[in-house]
Amino acid sequence: MDSEISKLNQKIQQDALFIQDLRKELGKVVVGQEDLVNGLLVGLIANGHVLVEGVPGLAKTLTIKTLAQTMDAAFQRIQFTPDLLPADIVGTLIYSPKDGSFSVRKGPIFANIILADEINRAPAKVQSALLEGMQERQVTISDSTYKLPELFMVLATQNPIEQEGTYPLPEAQVDRFMLKVNITYPTKQEEARVMELMARQALPQAGKVVTPEQVLNARRTADLIYVDDKIKNYVLDLVIATREPARHGLEKIKPWINYGASPRATIYMVQAAKAYAFINGRGYVTPEDIKAVGFDVLRHRVLLTYEAEAENISSEDVIKSIFEAVEVP
């Protein structure tokens, strides 16, 4: 086993060389936001979609656009607005008066990287137009189904739900996102650097350093990363604790949880931890990897009661209590 992991470590270090190049290019444009950059990289390697939440002006869109610029792949930005229609995303049938036939005009969803900007500013029917593509990697237009590219990733931004003109995402759609990353204001030093970079006529640009083939190869390598049975049980204990907190001596938080995490949380936590191990050049998953991705995997899957909201308890407070209570292998 040790020799296999050693060989895998060597393969990972070779296949993950582009990660450093990608970080370097991102760093030319994006200052700080380490959590966001790590979340995007984990989603990219784990083949998962990422939801990013934060107030306006925190470089959510800029970071995602810059990531797309570093890749030699098709990129589409969709600006979600209240008057957007589902056909504006997936496409529609176009009638030709010349021969009386219909042809398919594919929508922007048929790209490799999709930026769904301010996704919660459009009604639920428009948000739900993404569901089939995100889960099944295909789109149905009229009575025909069309496959999406092998490299397909939805990166969505949203403003806090309480802001005016926003619509909460349906639970079924939120659960399709592997990760939800919350970002906050930069430090004074970071903001000073932002001011230096952006207060110029010529803004910095990232170069293309990654091909889709490199990403797909990295995903195949990440799939091989070793996950010990103790780590798998640790993940199961964490997820089940969101549904049955009393089993881990967490009776206090039981009244705060309306619904615990779905089985997708179990699957995604292992996949995300493998990706996190990959970008750190390791062929095995540690409990620290689970902790590193755990909040992003669980924060949008633990639904709270009105009692929790009345007491100003957040899902992060609940998740923190669970990580502190569940025994680490």
Offer a concise description of the structure:
The protein has 15 helices and 11 strands. The chain is α/β, with parallel strands linked by helices.
List keywords for this structure.
329 residues, alpha/beta, Rossmann fold, Helicase, Ruva Protein, domain 3, 2 domains, five-stranded parallel beta sheet, two-stranded antiparallel sheet, 15 helices, globular
The domain tally reads: 2
Percentage of residues in DSSP E strands:
15-25%
| CATH superfamily grouping of the largest domain | P-loop containing nucleotide triphosphate hydrolases
What is the radius of gyration? 21 Å
What do the pLDDT scores average to? 85
Give the biggest sheet: 5 strands, parallel
Note poorly predicted spans. Answer: none
The portion of residues assigned to helices is 40-55%
User: SSE string, helix = H, strand = E?
Assistant: HHHEHEHEEEHHEEEHEHHHEHHEHH
CATH topology category name of the largest domain: Rossmann fold
Please state the overall shape, judged from the principal axes of the Cα atoms. globular
CATH architecture of the largest domain: 3-Layer(aba) Sandwich
- Give the beta-strand count: 11
Our measurement of the CA-to-CA distance between the termini, rounded to an integer number of angstroms, reads 19 Å
Strand line-up of the largest beta sheet: 2-5-8-1-9
Q: With helices defined by DSSP (H or I, 4 residues minimum), what is the helix count?
A: 15
